[in-house]
Amino acid sequence: MSATESQGHAARRRLRWPSPWSVGAALIAAIVLGPIVSVVWLALFPSDNIWPHLIATTLPRYLVTTGVLMGAVGLLSAIIGTGCAWMVARYEFPGRRWLEWLLLLPLAIPAYLGAYALVDFLEYAGPVQTALRSAFGWSSARDYWFPQIRSMGAAVLVLSAALYPYVYLLARAAFREQSGSAEEVAQSLGAGALGRFWRVGLPLARPAIAAGVAIVMMETVNDFGTVDYFAVQTLTTGIFSVWLQAGNAGGAAQIACVVLVLVIVLVTLEKSSRRRMRFFNLSSRHRPVARRPLTGGSGLVALVICAVPFAVGFVLPVAVLLSHAFDTGARWGDGALLDAMRNTLMVGGIAAVITVLGGVFLVYGVRLSGRSLPRLLLPVTTIGYAAPGAVLGVGILIPLALADHALADTVEALTGHDIGLLLTGSAFALVLAYCVRFFAIAQGAADAAMGRVSPNLALAARSLGRSQGQTLGAVYVPLMRASVASALLLVFVDCVKELPATLLLRPFNFDTLATRVHAQASLENIAGATPAALLIILVGLCAVGLLARANR
Fold first, then answer.
1. In this structure, how many other beta carbons lie within 10 angstroms of the beta carbon of residue 222?
2. Does residue 497 sit in the same domain as residue 531?
3. What mean pLDDT comes out for the span 307-336?
4. 352 and 227 assigned to the same domain
5. Is 91 helix (H, G, I), strand (E, B) or coil?
């Protein structure tokens, strides 16, 4: 072969067109990242720039309130989650085996449901204040002092009770994986129980705790139902106010960018913390820490410490809602509730299927491409899970509305028929938001499942003449079935609970279970919100059960 022919072959190899799998993976990554890019673009080039006005008026208040709320919820969740994890991992006390899993149940209850239940329980007409007036003979609120329920403190309590399981789950795993040798060395040097916690257990578990606190703080930024119900003005409520009340989409995008910056800072701090704090087990035989038995008063104290978060985060909301459920039997057959249930199942199911299929396609396409750019895009596509629903709502609805109007005008000019708004006038925008928001769950599950499949199996299938698509269906899918099913359930449950994006993107007169609960509770009709709220909790319990099974 001549030198010219060799150069020609080399040039053709360099100019090799990417496979359809690589192109599809890049397209999926672009769709997931599109809303984030849209928010940044709208913030940089708004039609009406109110950035100076925001800085001079409301933005500092939103920013300070959000920072205080994030810090307080993160700190309280860290204390509760770490303390409970240490108790169940290091000690044996009455009820420990039950509480080890019961402490996860608050994950099944969205924070806004806990807020509605707490107010109903503690308000003036609630059972607590009614019992106090009856016991002490008070006739009105002027006769006694009672803490303000709808306040920043109540919001911190509710959010912490709903979100501490994120810290608890990661901290418990970290404490369980620690070696018993370190504990014995610390004890031989005279360290007591508290000393072993501060000097050995906590430093070794710090990366896991930091990761859990970062998730808690990101969920706090995303929350809308709780802070709106307690009249706490955060950046998320500011997005709703500036967009829906003031009618300024550019201002909403600018506030959304501030939220994105906060989220990126949290993610960066969490990753850098884990990168700096690395510990290794130097022993050839790992021996877990033996639990110390607690009896008598010590066992009772440990039981109370672990039972209180479970009671506040799960028992109280469920008990309040069940008390209304028995009084509102006729509401279970309400047509509006059935419509909301049908809408929830439809959009949540469609979004879950599309998201998981897209995650599998993306991961498989990146693995086939063998190029650096798709591999760099893979972790970036998880940013949607960190971005609050309100931010995604801004990034999706505005460009989608422009495209929708352009499509309708084009079709009408060509055919003379007005097709209406196909994208924003239907549940399309809502499904797209769910897919972008929870794509990280599906992508992470697919990536982990494919990583457990031996490459030799795929090579054997290709050597037998199977195409890349046939290899995916015949080799990977059967071995990934359990992980794919778990991802489908987790994405569906998160879609059912999602409130901010649903409020912004739902079509007119289109309710889901989450928006129905919010609408009824906003009207102080907790009884009317109870059926939908209990259905959300029931769906959430399925996901918590799956999570508990995976972390045995």
1. 24
2. yes
3. 85
4. no
5. strand
Which residues share a beta bridge with 293?
A: 92
CB count within 10 Å of CB 296 equals: 8
Note whether residue 454 is domain-resident: yes
Query: Of all helices (H) and strands (E), which one includes residue 92?
Result: strand 91-92
Whether 469 is in a domain gets the answer yes
SS3 302: helix
- Cα 535 to chain centroid distance, Å, stands at 19
Of 271, 300, 326, the domain-final residue: 326
Q: The pTM is what? A: 0.85
Number of H helices, E strands in the chain: 29, 2
Q: Tell whether 467 and 377 lie within a shared domain.
A: yes
Q: How far apart are the first and last CA of the chain?
A: 62
Q: Using one digit for the tens of pLDDT, what is the confidence trace for 417-475? A: 877 777 887 889 999 999 998 988 888 888 888 877 777 787 887 787 888 778 887 78
262-281 burial string, b = 16+ CB within 10 Å, else e? bbeebbeebeebeeeeeeee
Compute the distance between CA of residue 213 and CA of residue 13 in angstroms, rounded to an integer: 48
Same domain, 301 and 418: no
What Rg, from alpha-carbon coordinates, does the chain have? 26
Assign 3-class secondary structure to 164-232. Answer: HHHHHHHHHHHHHHCEHHHHHHHHHCCCCHHHHHHHHHHHHHHHHHHHHHHHHHHHHHHCCHHHHHCCC
Shared domain for 373 and 499, answered yes or no, is yes
Which residue type occupies 269? L
The three-class DSSP label of residue 158 is helix
User: What are the angstrom distances between the C-alpha of 318 and each of 95, 98, 323, 436, 517?
Assistant: 21, 18, 8, 31, 14
How do 91-92 and 292-293 pair as beta strands?
parallel
Provide the phi-psi class of 145: left if phi over 0, else alpha when psi is between -120 and 50, else beta.
Answer: beta
| Nearest one of 103, 75, 105 to 89, comparing CA atoms | 103
Give 317's pLDDT tier (boundaries 50, 70, 90): very high
